[in-house]
Amino acid sequence: MIEMQDVWKSYANGVMAVNGISVKIEKGEFVYVVGQSGSGKSTFIKLMYREERPTRGKILVDGTNIADLKNKEIPFLRRKMGVVFQDFKLLPKLTVYENVAFALEVIEESPRQIRKKVMQVLDLVKLKHRARFLPSELSGGEQQRVSIARSIVNNPSVVVADEPTGNLDPENAWGIMEVFERINDNGTTVVMATHNKDIVDRMKRRVIAIESGMIVRDDKRGDFGYEG
Description:
Layout: E1 2-10, E2 16-25, E3 30-34, H1 41-48, E4 56-61, E5 64-65, H2 74-79, E6 81-84, H3 96-105, H4 111-124, H5 140-152, E7 158-162, H6 170-185, E8 189-193, H7 197-203, E9 206-211, E10 214-219
Parallel strand pairs: 3-8, 3-9, 6-7, 7-8
Antiparallel strand pairs: 1-2, 1-4, 4-5, 9-10
GO molecular function, one term: transmembrane transporter activity
Subunit structure: Homodimer. Forms a membrane-associated complex with FtsX.
Family: Belongs to the ABC transporter superfamily.
């Protein structure tokens, strides 16, 4: 599903954020990416959905080397890859329904299919009853559920989440994790960067730990491994 082959990433200021990483994530896996601030974890995640381009190396997503994609081709990558952010990135003047539908409108789905798919995905994240609400009328946990719904409404093969519970209280964080579990149970590959030690330790999924831009640990059923 995702494979990095000797991937390096350096920035203009001379910082080497990723140092020769090679890793493979199989279809249907649920993978946590952990590491302390400045470890290169965020860059590692951003490389997967081409927010960043590697300085060197190959990144294969469904067999396509996304390192070679032109900027105009990136939106086509994002159609088969859902991305969930810490800060939700919802459109404030659109309702829950409209926020999710927007992802289908840009690829010119029919109105009938849009309604069907949006309501199905809102049911999955338990927000059908909030379809006509604006983001400002929702709790933080509900806003994140809308963000997740928008990321999966195209039925992507993989979802990449960057600190999706970072702004949430523990109760809402666990609710979000239940949503990701359901998505993964349906066959979608999930790759999630997180600082949430409690969630990682209790969920016992694959854990990739990054330090100084390198993978220092890759455990099939791992734990967080840091104190803070």
